């Protein structure tokens, strides 16, 4: 595999400068870090080069421990002293150290958490209420783009931004159908499905995963052929960390034009946005597959008055020139009023910048600069809409949004197109045929010292009231939710199928959830890889549950 964008040795040098990496001897670690001696001693006993490996292992005594843990906490809601932290952080540069860490964690009773980018909505990749070892893939980020075969091998620690940048350095006519947040880690993202602006043309990120390097609970390194199709099915959308450790993905690159067209257009209540959005629900999922229009719903004050309005931002991307886009919109959605002067033609990598809120002129190197991308402080939830919401329902939603103190956001993506070509059992991600819209609802805690201040609690209560208001208008039996937007408020019970189904069927639906449970029982029968919403293992056979 080709060298990473950031040469690993250079990265470690920089890391040592910024974090003052401790090069403590084993004896000094044992002296000041009670509780992790057994794990460290095990690593020493089983390492071929402990002097080197020890520089990649951090305990709370190390000055660099907290900065390393903090640097990839993407949701700053969890950057507080009360958040449980690892007993040990391992930042491997090779697969051998991961095998050793896995062996030692199992031997000495530690759980493992696996962090590639740190975007876990509930911090499950870097927190736990039990002693745990965190494997942080920050040093395993190599990307090998093969333009001739339209594929790329990506190590688990690489981010989407680094992937897009690497592709753009080789070609402007291939891209990967992933999301628009540059700091999302590839390893976990594909494990949960992964969607983006190309989903209507090319499906999910996981639909375009071709192969994998994967470590099972016994430390064996497997590829797709070696693991078999059942396990390969499970780790593409079923939460790969329930089954083992993704080391790298082989991904399909898809053809894109040299230039795509992007437009951004705001509409308010006073400009008839309710009727425009009502039509949007019917047609956004049936457009030409080259067109994707995301919407964001905000409330804001009108000028300097005390009156509020709703503003909806329509963000469109078309896989082709602006003239063709305008023909499509004039035929299907003239009410939106898109004009040529608000259309901008740009490369696919530039469009990623724009959808993340940056100007298209921003140097694309920013995609490789993790510290340059703003972190967020929020609580989020997801829903799927299968039947258009009536005008009366939209007005109720707008009223609820206007009750918020401008900390709330609805982000809505249309489905249809290529998504309708897959059955809901093609991979564990089931939200396919019939889904019109995916809705992401969130509140932000900007200006608050924590998520427990009176203002923060009021915002969380508002989010819950919005959740209740939406109930008649979103999917039912089950009320579907997106696993990559994990939400512990859906439930965490896993003593039996009845408990686990409360949240598991919302993420995967019944048939997929049961299949995931059967596969889990085969590949990790003692449930070593676990967290509050991991695929469970039951003492009774699954066949005993209805």
TrEMBL record:
<dbReference type="Pfam" id="PF01565">
    <property type="entry name" value="FAD_binding_4"/>
</dbReference>
<dbReference type="InterPro" id="IPR036318">
    <property type="entry name" value="FAD-bd_PCMH-like_sf"/>
</dbReference>
<feature type="domain" description="FAD-binding PCMH-type">
    <location>
        <begin position="82"/>
        <end position="256"/>
    </location>
</feature>
<dbReference type="Pfam" id="PF08031">
    <property type="entry name" value="BBE"/>
</dbReference>
<feature type="signal peptide">
    <location>
        <begin position="1"/>
        <end position="24"/>
    </location>
</feature>
<keyword id="KW-0732">Signal</keyword>
<comment type="similarity">
    <text>Belongs to the oxygen-dependent FAD-linked oxidoreductase family.</text>
</comment>
<keyword id="KW-0285">Flavoprotein</keyword>
<protein>
    <recommendedName>
        <fullName>FAD-binding PCMH-type domain-containing protein</fullName>
    </recommendedName>
</protein>
<dbReference type="GO" id="GO:0016491">
    <property type="term" value="F:oxidoreductase activity"/>
</dbReference>
<keyword id="KW-0325">Glycoprotein</keyword>
<dbReference type="InterPro" id="IPR006094">
    <property type="entry name" value="Oxid_FAD_bind_N"/>
</dbReference>
<keyword id="KW-0274">FAD</keyword>
<dbReference type="InterPro" id="IPR016166">
    <property type="entry name" value="FAD-bd_PCMH"/>
</dbReference>
<dbReference type="InterPro" id="IPR012951">
    <property type="entry name" value="BBE"/>
</dbReference>
<dbReference type="InterPro" id="IPR016169">
    <property type="entry name" value="FAD-bd_PCMH_sub2"/>
</dbReference>
<dbReference type="GO" id="GO:0071949">
    <property type="term" value="F:FAD binding"/>
</dbReference>
<dbReference type="InterPro" id="IPR016167">
    <property type="entry name" value="FAD-bd_PCMH_sub1"/>
</dbReference>
């Amino acid at each position: 595999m080709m060298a990473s964008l950031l040469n690993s040795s250079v990265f470690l040098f920089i890391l040592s400068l910024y974090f003052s990496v401790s090069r403590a001897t084993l004896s000094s670690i044992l002296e000041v870090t009670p509780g992790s001696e057994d794990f460290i001693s095990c690593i020493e006993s089983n390492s071929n080069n402990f002097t080197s490996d020890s520089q990649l292992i951090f305990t709370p005594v190390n000055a660099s421990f907290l900065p390393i843990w903090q640097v990839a906490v993407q949701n700053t809601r969890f950057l507080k002293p009360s958040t449980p932290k690892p007993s040990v952080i391992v930042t491997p540069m090779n697969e051998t150290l991961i095998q050793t860490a896995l062996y030692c964690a199992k031997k000495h009773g530690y759980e493992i958490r696996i962090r590639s980018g740190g975007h876990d909505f509930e911090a499950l990749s870097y927190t736990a209420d039990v002693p745990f070892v965190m494997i942080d893939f920050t040093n395993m980020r190599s990307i090998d783009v093969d333009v001739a075969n339209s594929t790329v091998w990506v190590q688990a620690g690489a981010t989407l931004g680094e992937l897009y940048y690497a592709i753009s350095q080789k070609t402007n006519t291939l891209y990967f159908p992933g999301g628009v947040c540059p700091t999302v880690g590839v390893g976990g993202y594909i494990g949960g499905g992964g969607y983006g602006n190309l989903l209507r043309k090319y499906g999910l990120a996981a639909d375009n995963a071709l192969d994998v390097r994967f470590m099972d609970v016994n430390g064996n390194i497997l590829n797709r052929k070696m693991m078999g199709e059942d396990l390969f099915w499970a780790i593409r959308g079923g939460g790969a960390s329930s089954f083992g450790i993704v080391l790298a993905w082989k991904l399909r690159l898809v053809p894109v034009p040299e230039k795509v067209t992007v437009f951004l257009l705001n509409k308010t209540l006073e400009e008839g946005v309710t009727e425009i959005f009502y039509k949007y629900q019917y047609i956004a999922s049936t457009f030409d597959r080259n067109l994707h229009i995301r919407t964001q719903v905000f409330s804001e004050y009108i000028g300097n008055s005390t009156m509020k309005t709703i503003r909806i931002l329509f963000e469109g991307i078309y896989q082709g020139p602006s003239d063709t886009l305008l023909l499509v919109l004039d035929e299907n959605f003239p009410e939106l009023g898109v004009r040529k002067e608000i259309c901008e033609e740009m490369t696919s990598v530039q469009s990623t910048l724009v959808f993340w809120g940056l100007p298209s002129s921003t140097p694309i190197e920013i995609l490789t600069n993790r510290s340059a991308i703003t972190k967020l402080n929020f609580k989020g939830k997801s829903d799927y809409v299968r039947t258009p919401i009536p005008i009366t329902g939209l007005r109720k939603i707008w009223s609820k949004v206007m009750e918020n103190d401008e900390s709330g956001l609805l982000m809505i993506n249309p489905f249809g197109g290529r998504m309708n070509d897959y059955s809901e059992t093609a991979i564990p991600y089931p939200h396919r045929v019939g889904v019109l819209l995916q809705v992401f609802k969130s509140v932000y805690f900007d200006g608050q010292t924590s998520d427990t201040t009176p203002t923060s609690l009021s915002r969380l209560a508002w989010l819950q009231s919005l959740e209740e208001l939406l109930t008649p208008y979103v999917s039912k039996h089950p009320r579907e939710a997106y696993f990559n937007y994990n939400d512990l408020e859906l439930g965490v019970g896993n003593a039996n199928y009845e408990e686990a189904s409360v949240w598991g069927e919302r993420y995967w639906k019944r048939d997929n959830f049961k299949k995931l449970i059967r596969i889990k029982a085969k590949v990790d029968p003692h449930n070593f890889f676990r967290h509050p919403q991991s695929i469970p293992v039951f003492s009774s056979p699954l066949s005993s549950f209805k």
